[in-house]
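example protein:
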Amino acid sequence: MVDLHTHSRFSDGTLTPEALAAACAELRLSAAVLTDHDTADGYARFEAAAASHGIRTLTGMEISADVPGHTVHLLAYGFDPANGPLREALDKVRKGRETRQAEILSKLAMNGCRITPEDVRREGGDTGVPGRPHIAAALVRKGFARDRQDAFRRFLARGALAYAERFRLSLEAYIRLVRGAGGVVVLAHPFQTLFTNEELRGFVKDLTGYGLTGIEVYYPGHDAPRRDFLHQLSRENHLIETGGSDFHGDNKPGLSVGTGYNGTLHVPDACFENLAVACAAARNATEGT
């Protein structure tokens, strides 16, 4: 069993890379990948810790693409984290996060909830710019919200009082950058896009034309009919299948690394094997250009 979609304190998870690797080892996962948002800065620590437990891994990252009216996340795997064009693009994305945080805090203050950047940093991870989950935690700590869900519902979710958009690159740009860095791109949690099945079918076909390599078939909340539909999409478009828990530690209560909610998730070892082969092919193709 493997888990190809996890988060640490380097973005919006609550575990260090070392603690995350230990949690994966406790479940005897054969492979796991750290996919923090817009950064691979935690990879070296996770790789070292995973290796000490005999767990295989790859570079990984989750990125949000600009698709008006829809939430689209991509998972990048096997890329060179030192690649210049990719790092430059991620720097722009992080600066966009900084701008959004300032806008959110300003809107919160206008609605009687004074949260400082220092308050948010106290809730933040080991590096990078804290995100909305950290602002939510600060709202709870300061008594402006009952819990994280209440903070998002009233203040931080799309359309709520303090919501602010942030800079995102296009799908085509992200896929081109990751492939240029020797990696591959997978569509994360496809049903969170809120496309209908037929819209999703057309969307995946378009992404395949841009260079999409895979689709996240195994995911918490994907029942048998949804998995069957995604199996069909992967066959139609010659995509590899991946899966993961989207583990965030305490920021997603009740969700366990590897097994999802109530032990219902099981990502086959073949998902990692096929992903590793695709990453090796992408890396070889890049080195040959």
About this structure: The two ends are 35 Å apart (CA to CA). The chain has ten helices and nine strands. Residues 115 and 142 are 8 Å apart (CA to CA). The mean pLDDT is 93.
